[in-house]
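On clarity, I found the account of how folds are encoded harder to follow than it need be. For illustration, here is how one protein appears when written out as sequence plus structure tokens.
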Amino acid sequence: MSPSRTYEHPDTDDITIHRVLFALSEPLRLNMVRMLAERGEVDSIELGPDLPRSTLTHHTSLLRESGVVFVRAEGRKCMIRLRTDDLETRFPGLVDTVLAGHGEDDA
């Protein structure tokens, strides 16, 4: 049996505002974050079922590397969730504010 995949994540103290804002600046990633905020942990494929696998991997990797999400392997699945507590510790209210503003843009 092959070893389980592992993913590197920045420590809470290493999450920076410019990386988080960059990650949230792209509409596709922002929609992914909105879905995670609403649904909790999901299989990453649910974040973009119509996207090419390489595109999905690129965007979820960027979200992970910026500290916005936590990714873990579960068998063949790649489970992903928002790092709500860590983001709230570093930047209180940021994700809620960005998501609220994104909703206004859609109206």
